Amino acid sequence: MAFRFTIAIAILDVVLLTRSRTDDRCGGTRMSGAPVRMDAVVVRGDDELTGRCRLADYSGSRVSMRRPGPNGYLVRMFPKRIVKGRVVLVTGASAGIGRSVAARLATAGATVVTSARDGTRLRTAARYLPGTVDPVECDLTDQRQRREMIDYVVARHGRLDALVNNAGLGHVGLFGDIDQNSLREIVELNVIAVADLTRLTLPHIADRGGDVVMISSVAGWVPVPPLSLYSATKAAVNALVHALRREAPPGLRIHSINPGPVRTEWLLRAAGLRPSDDEGRRGCSFGTSPERVAEEVYRCLTGYRNRTVAVPRWFGAARLAGLPPLSNALDLALAPVAPLLARWARHYQDSLVTRARREQHGDLDDTTSTLPTSTTPRN
Ligand SMILES: NC(=O)c1ccc[n+]([C@@H]2O[C@H](COP(=O)([O-])OP(=O)(O)OC[C@H]3O[C@@H](n4cnc5c(N)ncnc54)[C@H](OP(=O)(O)O)[C@@H]3O)[C@@H](O)[C@H]2O)c1
Fold first, then answer.
1. What CATH number does residue 133 fall under?
2. Would I find Oxidoreductase among this entry's keywords (predicted)?
């Protein structure tokens, strides 16, 4: 009898909740008004229901509903995983996406270890961030430095909860035009360093339900001519993500974030430059804001599942281009225009290099790609 009564109350609650809306109150969420749909409702004792809420704001969150009180229905949201207090290592955090990720996580209360080669830029960036930010100078193409960095993080902070593999390098041009040093550097940074850092990190995060976030690229789904080698390295990262998910211990999460074009200075670095803060700001490429990518990283660290996301989301449709017959059609369509696309992309890259250079020096007319005197060339 009591059981039937509880079921009846549960059904009544769900009917009422589908006609309600939310507002925050008393540390919980009071339902009163607009539609809420439930995936499942489980009766727990006499006075509590649990289920999943599909409200726009709380999509996928677990909710706990109390029986109606004087102020309506009190719905307690089960909190998402919190970032506060976790130790997160973000590579390539002196600029662009990495810097925004560090800012987002530091704002949320994480202890963020930032790394890049340019220690000065790294420390300057850290100075403006809230909370605990620990800048560590490291060239990720050097295996010894990679190992020492992970050892340092664990020794200094006593733990490591998450790794954001962000540092990456591109090359604009046809594959046949890449010199051997650039080829080696791109593969070393985009693939070997990512795999090695992940390997070194796993023992520290495996039994504490940690996260590895790979900043990959839409180019990993749809390789495009001016970025052939870069696309191939990102495809390797995506393959590593799936391979790891299939062998990772339970609780470990492996995420992949695949941005389209992002407004950063990566095209300057792809031209072989090591830009200063000012040059980087002037020489930004077009695209979505790095903060948007950072927000997705934050969601990865606070969610419960492995995530594969494109930024912006609609770029996710690019995955279809990896399947026949679309992939075959792209092979046929892109091959004849590849030299043209490469020339166009190179021209755009040159204009960014010149812009970074011109505003500093005032009156340079040279629009061809040469190393700016004010930037440090890559070794
Ligand atoms: N921008 C885009 O349109 C775009 C699109 C899709 C994916 N992505 C990916 O997003 C990630 C971040 O790109 P971003 O646009 O933010 O690039 P970015 O502005 O050029 O920043 C790259 C960061 O990586 C660091 N870095 C470069 N080489 C390094 C090395 N050998 N060792 C350690 N750190 C190194 C750089 O600092 P130092 O020079 O001081 O070392 C910098 O902090 C990359 O993996 C990139 O492939 C970018």
1. 3.40.50.720
2. yes
Of 77, 100, 131, the residue at which a domain comes to its end is 77
| Amino acid 79: pLDDT | 61
> Is 230 considered catalytic here?
yes
Which H/E stretch holds residue 296?
A: helix 290-302
* Residue 28 β-bridge partners: 25
Predicted structure pTM score: 0.80
Q: What is the pLDDT of residues 311-368, one digit of tens each?
A: 999 999 999 999 999 999 999 999 999 999 999 999 999 999 999 987 655 544 443 3
Sign of the Cα torsion 259, 263, 266, 267 reads positive
Q: Is 164 in the pocket of ligand 1 (CB under 6 A)?
A: no
pLDDT tens-digit map of 48-85: 344 443 333 343 444 445 444 444 444 445 568 899 99
Q: Which is the catalytic residue, given 58, 230, 298, 304?
A: 230
In this structure, is residue 370 part of a structural domain? Answer: no
149 in a structural domain = yes
- Would 290 be classed as within a structural domain? yes
Domain of 70 in residue numbering reads as 2-77
CA atoms within 13 A on the CB side of 70: 1
Which atom of ligand 1 is least distant from the CA of 219?
A: 6
| Ligand 1 pocket, mutate which of 140, 262, 274 (most atoms under 8 A from CB) | 262
